[in-house]
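JOB MANIFEST
job_type = single_chain_structure
chain_count = 1
residues = 198
[input]
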Amino acid sequence: MPRAGLDPEAVVRLALAVVDDGGPTGYADLTLAAIAARAGVAVPSLYKHVAGLPALRRAVAQRCIEQLADALEETAEGRQGADALVALAWTMRRFAHDHPGRYAATQTELLGVPEEATELQTAATRSVVVVARAVGELDVPADRHVDAVRAVRSAVHGFVVLEAAGGFGMPDDLEVSFDYLVRGLVGALASTSASQRS
């Protein structure tokens, strides 16, 4: 008989708590055994509520991706173009700082997402759409939108990953460095747009 209060949603919440406790590797290290221990049940009891670890990982990733998309959409509200892109970059970095395990989930699960996981793909698309909208407001040519969105996402992600790994050993202020990166990238995108128009 299932433990009182344990259902698919409760299992996802328990998994998120395990991810949070694990820091940057919380998602990669997620196991049914860790979730069962937190729930106070045997691992087989979880199969009454989830199909297995891959399905649960997708559910956790979807929740994390939706959370990031919510934060990005809220950030973009009332902002446009360069202002929006700068703010979005800072929101991505803040999310990675505040929820390192969840941030990892927003990146890794999408690498091998099966075609049938349409809800996961839809959730991931929301974040891309927010960034793409801001890029479009910079008048980046339509045939360069994908390139510009990739540039923004990879620059922010690269900085965040290096920062989390302790890859910046110099004593200089990381806030200043990140601001320099973001404003330089946004300025380059805007400059490219202007040169295309002239």
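[summary]
The chain is about 70% helix and 0% strand.
Residues 53-76 form the longest helix (24 residues).
exit_status = 0
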